[in-house]
Specification:
With 405 residues, the protein is α/β, with parallel strands linked by helices. It has a domain of 221 residues: Vaccinia Virus protein VP39 (Rossmann fold), CATH 3.40.50.150. The chain is built from 11 helices and 17 strands. A hairpin with a 5-residue loop joins strand 5 and strand 6. The protein is globular, with a radius of gyration of 23 Å.
Length: 405
């Protein structure tokens, strides 16, 4: 939970040591925050706008393969001087290489000589952080954050964009920092990566029924609903599900344009059966359960692999659902490989990611006589239509559940 420093102004938020803050929100300037309310547990809720960068270049250029995919800041075609072949506009992959040795590279072009300081150490020339720099020394390096509206300009900006192209804007309510158990109330890069993949693979999602596990703010489900027939957006916790429902309502025009429907439901990975108690908010009706099992072909999950016990529960839920569905299904999982220094190892490790990979291997080796699971990584070379830093540690994995013949 966020606590304000005793002597600080209202816009100077100090985070306690037990809070978790998403990288998507980390670099957001304080004066751009729009706090819309407090949730039921007293956490500030903010409203952010995420703009879809629709452009011809975004669809035709697949981006640099396997590298550090930077943000796409413009809809203009890439300049030959700033973008190399296969790099998206603003990706920062063009003409940025520096050699530690003077001379020529393999193409015969000269490369920059290494600059050393007075002590003989390498003097790294950094790109400017802001586009306002009057004389930048190299390609611009803007801070990475979603557009956060200020209170006084909210109505004007939303009005202008609604008149222009409302289908380019996704509005999401979220928190800025939470305890670990409430991380679903934030927006994470893995959800944006999954959303990009959904937009890229419209053939896979068009007209389907999809289920998202651990949907959090509902970002990926909202994107999926622009193509899918029905999206079951699931998580646990009445406060989180209410926030998710509000985000679905804020973006209902996107789903309506494609004829899609989003249903926010409770799905607890630690329970075998779906909740059908009509007294419980976001419970399931028998008709919805029948539709789920009869028509679902896509399962989604993003950034839910941060705790070993929960990761085990996610994979058990995936397996259980795959066996109950009448049709063969495909699961798309988004994960970020997070590196942490631990005192136990006295080294940098990524234990949560390692456990995730071990669960993938166990699922692939599972033989129960009815289904077999094919696991493969998805190369993150598809177009980037949302503004975020597509770092090398972001990964997508595809699991196809097929009947044993």
């Amino acid at each position: 939970m966020v606590q304000l420093a005793p002597a600080a102004a209202m816009d100077e938020v100090t985070f306690r040591s037990d809070t978790v803050l998403s990288d998507v929100h980390l670099y957001t300037p304080n004066h751009r925050h729009l706090m819309v309310r407090l949730n039921s547990v007293g956490q500030p809720v903010f409203l952010s706008q995420f703009k879809l960068l629709w452009s011809q270049d975004s669809w035709t250029d697949s981006g640099a393969k396997g590298g550090d995919h930077r943000d796409i800041h413009t809809k203009e075609p890439p300049s030959a001087e700033t973008s190399g072949t296969g790099s998206p506009p603003g990706s920062g992959h063009g003409n940025e290489g520096f050699s530690l040795q003077a001379g020529a590279d393999t193409t015969g072009q000269e490369v920059a000589e290494a600059q050393l300081d007075e002590d003989g150490d390498l003097d790294v020339v950094r790109r400017p952080r802001a586009a306002s720099d009057s004389s930048p020394a190299g390609p611009l390096r803007d801070k990475v954050h979603p557009m956060i509206l200020a209170q006084e300009e909210d109505d004007d900006i939303v009005g202008e964009e609604a008149q222009g192209s409302p289908h380019d804007i996704i509005r999401i309510e979220h928190t800025m920092a939470t305890p670990l158990e409430d991380v679903g109330k934030q927006v994470w890069r893995g959800a944006l990566l999954l959303a990009d993949y959904i937009l890229f693979r419209q053939d896979l999602f068009r007209g389907c029924t999809a289920l998202e596990l651990g949907a959090g703010t509902g970002f990926a489900s909202i994107i999926a609903a622009t193509m899918a027939r029905t999206v079951y957006c699931t998580d646990v916790g009445a406060d989180l599900l209410a926030m998710c429902q509000r985000n679905i309502a804020l973006n209902s025009h996107l789903a309506a344009a494609g004829g899609g429907v989003v249903k926010v439901k409770e799905l607890d990975w630690l329970k075998d059966d779906l909740c059908t108690d009509p007294e419980v908010p976001f419970s399931w009706s028998q008709e919805e359960i029948s539709d789920l099992y009869d028509h679902t072909t896509i399962l989604l999950a993003a950034e839910v692999f941060y705790d070993d016990d929960l990761t085990d529960a996610v994979f058990k839920t995936l397996s259980r659902l795959a066996h109950r569905l009448k049709n063969a299904c495909t699961a798309i999982l988004s994960v970020e490989k997070r590196l942490n220094f631990t005192l136990r190892h006295l080294d940098v490790t990524c234990e949560a990611y390692d456990h995730f990979r071990s669960c993938l291997r166990a699922l692939e080796q599972l033989r129960d006589g009815n289904l077999h699971f094919v696991v493969e990584p998805v190369e993150a070379s598809f177009p980037q239509l949302l503004v975020y830093e597509r770092i090398r540690q972001l990964e997508l994995w595809k699991i196809v559940a097929e009947p044993v013949t």
